[in-house]
Amino acid sequence: MGTFHFFKKYRQHILFYVLPSSLVLLFGFQNCGRGFSADEFSSTSLNSISGGISDKVCVSTSPVGQALVRKLNRAELNFSLQDLLEVTGDYTVGIAPDASDVSGFTNNAENLQLDSDYVYALMNMTEKAVGDALKKTNSPYLQCAAGQNAACAKQKLSELGKKAYRRPITTAEETLLMDIFNKSQAQSLSFQDSLGFAMQRVFMSPVFLYRSSYSGIVTARGVKLSSHELATRLAYFLWSSVPDAELLAAADSNQLSTPEQIQVQVKRLMASPKADRFIRNFTREWLGMQKLQAAVRTGLTDDLKKDMQEETERLMLAVAREDRSALDIINADFSYINANLATLYGISGVAGTDFRKVEFSPLQVPRRGLLTQGSLLTITSSPTETKPVARGSQILNGITCNPPPPFPDGLTVTPLADSPNSNLTITERMAEHRKVGTSCYNCHKEMDPVGLGLENYDQIGRFRTTYASSGNPVDATGSIRNVAFQGGMQLVDILAQQNDFKRCLTKKLMTYAIGRSMTTADQCAIQTIGDDFVAQKRTFSDLIAAIVMSEQFLYNQTSSRGE
Prior knowledge:
The chain is mainly α. The chain has a domain at about 5-30 and about 70-210. About 50% of the residues lie in helices and about 5% in strands. The protein contains 26 helices and nine strands. The protein has helices at about 5-10, 10-25, 45, 75-85, 115-135, 150-165, 170-185, 190-205, 205-210, 225-240, 245-250, 260-270, 275-285, 290-295, 300-320, 330, 340-345, 375-380, 390-400, 425-430, 440-450, 485-495, 500-515, 525-535, 540-550, 550-555; strands at about 70, 210, 220, 220-225, 335, 355-360, 475-480, 485, 555. A hairpin with a 2-residue loop joins β3 and β4 (about 220-225). α7 (about 170-185) runs antiparallel to α8 (about 190-205), α10 (about 225-240) packs antiparallel against α11 and α23 packs across α24. The protein is elongated. The two termini are about 40 Å apart.
């Protein structure tokens, strides 16, 4: 049927033929897996990257962290359907948002569980996606050289199955799909309707919905990913979607077995527009951009919030697309702004809604990198004033990965009372947190001085030297790791010179790439890669290649099912 409304008409057919086998397999595919001992970290693969690594290689005798069975998250599922079926809709609107409470990323296996509500939403989603694909004019799935018959259906389903399952389809899988097609035909359904049911079964299979990392060779270091599992991990890291034909062909022919072969594919994938998905999604989740759109501030319009987020993502895209040093993420002396942001930043000569590159130093604008952008400064403020505690926490947790001590159990916190002396600066008020002997001391002695160093930027990121409410001069004296600084520019200098940001960015990227939390077993790799590949002499692609070449990416600790 041209409009593909048969799913409604034949809903019982779906429930009888497609859903039962999917339910059994899906619920039987939840996280499992036991540990597998591994050898010490090796720098062989990293040395294959241009320039090699330094002599400061730490040595770990711990196994790589364990990767669990991992379900596709909402973004990955939607992009996979779009790329496989060549459709453009947003098919995941009926699925609840993914949680990000573990590691901050929604692709973490510990977040991605499945229940009956999800399965029924998946059924509706795949109906719509397959329907859109088949109702397209001259849909390739309906083009059959020798007529629309079982032989054509088998070819179409085998081709789709290989792409969706990210490996050659087995005889048993092919037989199952053809059984659904043949039973549909036996009930006098059209070729299009019968093929549609079988196609839907492809997307309700756990082989499509879950990613594996346990079928490769067992070595002293762990289970090495098979060539098809490696192709899948690469594609979902850099494209948030399935491998394309070229990457699958490389896996088929075992052309992902050397560092040089892998680097060729990394470079190709990063050059594709699909890599923007990775950059944008990583940036949003790493920095907590979802909080920006919910923010309410005086002077903060919906358009300005969108522009703030776009500025942040464009800087990250520039670092990746221009293959700049990863240090530019926090140290770039430029940004991409439009008239809205130019007004906010006090920059003249920028008109219209289009974004353009602006160099800061020639204009003597006190901004560099992410930390002085309106987006981060806004989400770490309250509606009426800045929040040095939140700003310090954001930097310690997300930028340096040196969080303050955990909140003590049973501690009752009483907010600071407003001082009767309204002329006290926020620096003087915050000093109450850091009185030795108080319950606040251990945490706030680390957070407050970092956040106070950004006091020159108000609650939506405007630069100021005095407080509008009192006229008092702003005191932007701060310190981090016992190093004193004055204002945001000096803070950026310190972060660019120390190793904390380098290792933290590596940790965040590796967490996102593999889809699991990092453990102490991974610290050696994080230290080695961060210290050597987040540097002025290195590029962003060097950093990505180093992560892909790490044992954390190429191996799995478990010898059972798991990613």
